[in-house]
Each structure stands twice: as C-alpha cells, then as structure tokens.
Amino acid sequence: MKTAILALMLTLTSWITGQQQPRYAPDLSPPASKKALITGADQTEKYLPYLSGKRIGMVVNPSSQIGDKASVDSLKALGVNIVKIFGPEHGFRGDASNGAKVDDSVDPKTGIQVVSLYGKTGKPSPKDLSEVDLMIYDLQDVGARYYTYLATLHRVMEACAENDKELLILDRPNPNGYMVDGPVLDMKLKSGIGFHPVPIAHGMTVGEYAQMINGEGWLANGVKCRLKIITIANYKHSMPYTLPVHPSPNLNTQQSILLYPSLCLFEGTIISQGRGTYFPFTVLGNPDLKGQYGFSFTPVGIKGMSETPLFENQECFGLDLRNYDTQKMVKSKQINLSWLIEMYKAYPYKDRFFDFKQSKQIGNFDKLAGTTDLKEQIIAGKTEDEIRKSWEPKLNQFKKMRKQYLLYP
C-alpha cells in the first residue's frame, strides 16, 4: 500500500511541476509478470486532470481506443473539450485505401472538425494549432520504418515545437518490439516510407521513438517538442502483444502485422503481397510464377482496402504464409530475407523484378530498403549472411544509440 501511495505521489508531482516525464522512471511496482499490461490511453487517471480546462487536439484513428471504445468518443463523454481531430493515412475512421489522399471533413458522430494529415498537407498548420492548447498523439505503430505513422509523428512534433504546443503521447506496445534489424536508412533515400536513419525494424514504442526524434535533433532547425508520455504499465519489449484493433486496413490480422517488416519490401517489386484479398501481407505471388508454385490467389478491388490492386482479377502463384510460424522470427530477432531471395530466383524475367513501374505499388524498392545495396546484392546472388554483414557497423551503432531513449526493458 505504501509503495502504491508513493508511486501516485511521484506521478502527481510530475504533472503539477509540468516537468517532462523522466526517461527512466523508478520502478516501484510489483514484478510485471504478475500484472496485466495497460496501455497509456487506458490509464485515464494519469492524464484526465491534466486535460481539464484545455482545448484538445487529437491525432487518432480506429486503433486509438480506451477500453473497447474510440478514445475520442470516450474522452468526449468524460467532458474533455476536444476541438480538433487530426487523421493520418487511411483517415480518422480508417476507411481510406492505402496511399489514398484524404480530405478535411467534419466527423458526423461528434461534430468535431477533422484535419487530414494525409491530404493537401502532412503537417498541422499554425492556424490549426492556434485553436488548440494541448495535442494528444495516440496511434498504434507496428515497429517498421516504412509505416507512415512515424512520418506523421515527426510532422506533428515539429508543428507543436514551432507553435509552442505540448504533445501528450499515450504510449502503446510495439507488436514487433523484440526486433531491431535491417539496413539503416541512407538519408539520401528519405521519403514518407523512410523518414529517419533507423533500420527496417526499430524495436521502439512511439513514446521512445518520439524521445529519439527530439534527442537526435531530427526536427527542422533542431527545435525540440515539449513531450509528456503516459507509459505502458507492465510492458517489456520482448512481450508478445496481440493488437485489439487493426492499425490499418491491410494489416487486418496478427499474422500480417508480424510479417509486415519482412513482406513490405515486396511493395517495390513485381510480386503482389495479397492486396486485393482479405488476407494481405500473408501471401506473395505473381501471374508469371504459374507452374512454379501450387498455391494461388486472385486480387480483386476491395473498397477501403485496395480498390485497384496490382494484378487485379489475375491469378497469382506463390507463397502462402498464413500459417507460417512467426516464432522463428521471434527467436532469431531478424526479418526474413529468404523469401525475397527465393522469389527473385524463381521469377523468370529478372530485369523486371525490381524495376516494375506501377502506381498501385508503394514503389521504389531502394526507398523501402533504405539503401541501394540490397537490390544489387540480391541480383548478384549474395547470401543472406553476406547481406546481413553489410548492415554493420551502422546497425550496431543504432542499437547503442537507441538504448538511451528506452522507457521499457
């Protein structure tokens, strides 16, 4: 009881003084193994008093939940004054297809103005923020560099710093938090699917990543964003975590989320990852692989997921990974390169494998890989071990840098 009271006093002191939450808060709780994991959003007692009397802006989507209800709806019902919603890729309600630009709107359920951060602009404007006292960021990330929510986080932090607004992050587990792997992004290849010099799998939560953006001076002109982070209770990076809500339309199963760091590389090739099916990012295929693989699938247009998918209405032959044992990756703590190597070898028209131009794909393989080397290494027939060795020493340097921003063991 005394321990619980002391922990509560420390939390209240932090809010009253307005100081940023320390990176390494003292652990006064019983062992995590004996307690349930609780997301930042679900710990309303830690931040509701801080929201009182403030005009709140929220960066949210369907993954932003308190219990089993949308966080916007829940907080509004609790009397929080939410004046503006900011929606990332796929929109606030999550019903826009991948890559589709989203317009500003008014949420019909709450009547709150929704500003799209995946439309005409990716960054909140000074006018948007002039009507806000405090911003809240609550998006479920999946731990992969190509996921566009990291670029959204950066832009929101930058806008808050430039307009002297504080950002409250409601932290959530990284379902691929056990893995730190892949080539570190060459910043010459910076894009919306690769915004920072990090590997493909960064092994951090959003709260940790935000501290890294600040600490490494990655915001424009070296500005710093004032952060408050509601940390996840009883969390470790090694913990398995099944997402209660799909983070985006095409990551609609736990299997797809765990395979995503490995399979998204195929977005820059002539191989379909199953967009246009109800099991995207769990299969791989191409019509030209007929006769080489027994498994097949046929992409079709699906509203809100992939409305004009690659190889629409064409039978694709390849790999079915829906029952692949993802524990193999958990044990190795590595992305899987063998599928990329295998399918390049199997595909009959080698000159088209990486150079296939198709707007329906995310596109440039080098931007996804974060390096021009990986494509050339696959073409040259390098082994997986040889490719992995080329990622050093940068990967090890990132791991060392990452440690100083971690909030969880």
TrEMBL record:
GO terms for molecular function: peptidoglycan beta-N-acetylmuramidase activity. Residues 56-254 form the Peptidoglycan beta-N-acetylmuramidase NamZ N-terminal domain. Residues 258-408 form the Peptidoglycan beta-N-acetylmuramidase NamZ C-terminal domain. Coiled coil: none annotated. Pfam families: NamZ_C (PF20732), NamZ_N (PF07075). InterPro entries: NamZ, NamZ_C, NamZ_N. PANTHER family: HYPOTHETICAL 460 KDA PROTEIN IN FEUA-SIGW INTERGENIC REGION [PRECURSOR], PEPTIDOGLYCAN BETA-N-ACETYLMURAMIDASE NAMZ. This is DUF1343 domain-containing protein.
